[in-house]
Amino acid sequence: MIRQNSGLTIVELMVVLLISSLLLGALYRTFIGQQKAYAVQEQVVDTQQNARGGLDQMITEIRMTGYRKDILASLGNINGFTQLITPVNSANYVGLNDDQVTIIIAEKAITYKLQPDSRGPILVRDENTGEGGQLMAENVENLQFRYTLSDGTVTDSPTNPGTIRMVQVTVTARTKMTDPDLGGDGYRRRELTALIKLRNFGL
């Protein structure tokens, strides 16, 4: 007897197509999920590196506050500032009670503050020469300073800036774009803190 090859029946073909569709759908969902996780993680890393770069520059310069203080003593003021360090608690430039501080290093009066921008809140460094601030980091939504005084007291608003011995800086940065799967406003945030000893102040 001769066997005839009749091929696949319509039912078999439909079953194969269904199984193939399910497998492809699962692979597609896995791929999309991995792609989204990668994009979110990349944003978080960019946010953290961006904030770290701005914080590192602040650490370096704040540590040098009071270097060549004889220049301030001889001039009386540098760009209108008469103290080696001038804290401003709750300057509130971007609506989150953010602080600012101005330090004097040699002949420069450098102010660190937040500023509203079309791209979102930014951290700026302003040498108070009238030319405006220099961008240090984007998407920094909060900047806080706390001060340790010579007697060990920790405060946000020192009455005598000359008694400041250490400065604690806290920077809160957020991702550039929102994540719709995240609760709240959808931004992922990173907070970085540093404690800086002022080398050119008293013991």
Describe the overall structure.
This protein is α+β, with helices and mostly antiparallel strands. It has one domain. Helices cover 30% and strands 30% of the residues. The chain is built from two helices and nine strands, in the order ααβββββββββ. The strands form two sheets. The protein has a five-stranded antiparallel sheet, covered by helices on one side. A hairpin with a 4-residue loop joins β6 and β7. The longest helix has 54 residues. The mean pLDDT is 90.
Descriptors for this entry?
four-stranded antiparallel β-sheet; five-stranded antiparallel β-sheet; alpha+beta; 2 helices; single chain; rod-shaped; 30% helix; 203 residues
